[in-house]
Design a protein that fits this description.
The protein has two domains: about 230 residues, Rossmann fold (3-Layer(aba) Sandwich); about 120 residues, Rossmann fold (3-Layer(aba) Sandwich). It is built from eleven helices and 14 strands. The longest helix has 22 residues.
Length: about 375
């Protein structure tokens, strides 16, 4: 099959017969803005750019000419950034997440009061780890005036059944999600967002709730830190200080990215010895973040050996955070079945999602060099919520 550097538009196969309007939220922001930024577009793979049988992510050299031609035809302004990490999002690693952070930081560092375009980014990725990547970028860019919008799709942009030419799939959600993301990045306030299915939310609140439906994600706008740390427009000197601090930190983050692990322990009705055995296997490892995923409001089966082990994990520098298997509501100390653990240095995750907890623990272990500083920073973040 020959790969054409353009897309064929067929009446029965293209959703682009009319201009794509801004979403209601983006339109409201548009009316309040004097000028729009031209977002920088990063293609990272995922279902959005997949093609063939079985679906596989197209390389940038094939997909980007097709995408940029389509954007130009539909008068969707954007500037494409070269990116080396292009893969199915289920294959992303900590090093990949750090690579996205550093790529965006590099371009954000070129920002100035005369060049607002360097503060607007759209990142196309896959749905599997979209919430993790979004929450991580939200933590990493906290306190800045950047605007990053992540998007993805449940169906490929191109019709995977047509193996003879590249044709937009009229049933795909890809184009609508992308144009919403571009509009949001052009007019939105500073922050990190996910745009999907005609809606958008602060990235730290987003969860994938369906494996096949086009309305695969949910989130909410009642977000605390880091969403509330972003500033609409930083003064030039303050922005430069923020950038200088992050650039100086890069060698440390580079080194840590190959060493850091965020462990997860998921409670199921096994014998309590099994839970102890899982956690004990982490005791001799370098200090890490550990997500203890309990039942209901954060309830965890009590045993004396487990209580002792939690104390030992704390003494070894591990940061144990308790969360819930429930997608909504978070954890509390209302039940004795859950409150006992907090007397043994376990940290409550509050209402943070699993993706947001992972992202926070990852950033703390990348950017802060001691267990004491990580705990101190977690407490600060909690106070800002």
């Amino acid at each position: 099959m020959s790969l054409q550097p353009s897309i064929s538009y067929m009446p029965s196969k293209t959703p682009l017969t009319a201009a794509n309007p801004l979403s209601a939220a983006a339109s409201t922001r548009h009316s309040k803005s004097l000028a729009a930024a031209i977002p920088h577009l990063i293609y990272a793979g995922g279902t959005f750019g997949s093609y063939g049988k079985p679906l596989a992510t197209l390389p940038a050299s094939v997909f980007l000419p097709l995408l940029t031609a389509s954007l130009q035809q539909q008068q969707q302004p954007s500037v494409v950034i070269d990116n080396s990490v292009i893969k199915d999002s289920s294959q992303l690693s900590i090093s990949d997440l750090v690579s996205f952070y550093q790529l965006i930081l590099q371009h954000y560092s070129q920002a100035s009061s005369k060049c607002p375009d360097h503060r607007a980014f759209v990142l196309i990725t896959g749905t599997d780890t979209l919430s993790y990547l979004g929450a991580f970028l939200a933590e990493a860019f906290a306190g800045s005036d950047i605007c990053i919008v992540l998007t993805a799709s449940m169906r490929p942009l191109l019709d995977a059944d047509n193996l003879h030419e590249h044709v937009i799939d009229a049933q795909s959600d890809a184009w609508g999600n992308l144009t919403d993301a571009i509009a949001l990045a052009a007019y939105a306030d500073a922050g990190v967002y996910v745009a999907f299915g005609g809606e958008h939310w602060p990235a730290q609140t987003v969860q994938k709730i369906h494996s096949h439906d086009l309305m695969a994600f949910t989130g909410h706008s009642r977000a605390g830190y880091p969403a509330n740390s972003y500033v609409k427009t930083l003064p030039k000197a303050r922005r430069q200080n923020w950038i200088d601090d992050r650039l100086a930190q890069q060698p440390v983050i580079d080194s840590a990215a190959h060493l850091v692990v965020v462990a997860t322990v998921y409670c199921v009705p096994n014998n309590s010895d099994w839970l102890v055995m899982q956690l004990r296997s982490l005791l001799s490892l370098a200090p890490m973040g550990i997500m203890l995923i309990g039942y209901g409001a954060g309830n965890v089966p009590y045993s004396a050996p487990l209580a002792t082990l939690l104390d030992q994990l704390y003494q070894q520098g591990h940061l144990v955070v308790c969360t819930t298997q429930c997608p909504y509501g978070g954890v509390s100390e209302a039940y004795a079945a859950g409150s006992w653990q907090y007397a043994h240095q376990v940290i409550s995750a509050g209402r943070l999602t699993i993706s947001a907890i992972y992202a926070r623990l990852l950033w703390l272990h990348l950017a802060y060099d001691t267990p004491a500083r990580r705990r101190q920073r977690w407490a600060y973040m909690l106070r800002q919520t």
